[in-house]
Amino acid sequence: MQLLQRKRILLGITGGIAAYKACELCRRLRDLEAEVQVVMTPAATRFITPLTLQALSGRPVRTDLLDPAAEAAMGHIELARWADLIMVAPASADFLARLAAGTADDLLTTACLATDAPIAVAPAMNQAMWRSPATRRNCATLAVDGVLLWGPGSGSQACGDEGPGRMLEPQELLQRIQALLGTPPILAGRSVVITAGPTREPLDPVRYLSNHSSGKQGFALAAAAAEAGAEVTLITGPVELTTPPGVTRVDVTTARDMLAAAESVCSGQVDIFIAVAAVADFRPASAAEQKIKKAAGQQGLELSLVENPDIVATIARRQPRPFMVAFAAETENLEANARSKLERKQVDLVVANDVSRSDIGFGSDDNVVTLVSREGSETLPSMPKTALARLLMERIGRHAKATEMPATKRHAKP
Ligand code: PMT
Model pTM? Predict the structure, then answer.
């Protein structure tokens, strides 16, 4: 998904039945993290209320050129300068005529006259009005003036007519806005490997050692990496989650399976490796072939455990190696322990979380993390794992870019 972070869009709404579609457009723009300032003409307010658009845009709607209170907050010239794009949807025949004539008799036309930003209009009107010589003439003038004419589409109209004059659907307008303003996805062309979930270390055919990892954080990161344009392989222990769209999933059970899968995937080109999995540090020295029985009068059972391979440290020793990110599940001294893992495992970044809390960490929907690198640390506020994953992918993409060098030169430290 191509985000519109920090892009400022002045959404102009003029009077027409298609005005209701502007609500959807406004909402979708906000979903893509654009800042949206709605300006409505008086006629538009007869079709939908400014209150609706205020709730959807998160800002008071501007309707009046001569409103002293609103002008004190952001004057009309300031508003015109603020915008990265003026998108007028729907654009009525009357609005197109006024825009073509260069009039400045309301806030929207004034902002259009005063802006240096691109102006896009999505015409919406009756088919006969669209075909009329006056509208043809106005559109020709607007095209010469550099105004982007997006649509209209053709089909059945609210008035019962058939023909050209339908406003383009919000989704299509959104795609055009993304093409115009969107930055290329931060991980386009990158390949990312993520480990997630728990591992299970068998004791006998029916029992195993494991932990409470649900896989939520790792799956959210896989979805966010795919959204950010990466080619994603998700190596996961046993979890009850569906694979995010566009992600290649490899299911494993034990730590040794996970290492084998990671080594196999990393034998090809991998740019970023993110170890979210809660890998069992130890496994039973041997798994009993039959179910372990409790003998009569038996008071206890001694288990002999051996160390599992460290997956993230093993991949970090490869030459060349990906940009390496480890998670750290801590219950105390979060940052100090994370920093020690950064060195011990020779990774580039550690994402530390406090797993002693029940509201974050294992199994929860939210998380709080501290990013620890050799350059410093940053603690992010509590948020859903899905939102955190997007933020983390943006941070990881930035860190990876900052340390970027040809993969062949990126060696683990001795
Ligand atoms: O799955 P959820 O319910 O959403 O919970 C998310 C989480 C709490 C599991 C996740 O946020 C997290 O903290 N993952 C790391 C869990 C962990 O095993 O931490 P650790 O501090 O023990 O290990 C440090 C790093 O080494 C981790 O990146 C781990 O994947 C890796 N490791 C550990 C042991 C091992 N044998 N091989 C490894 O690669």
Answer: 0.66
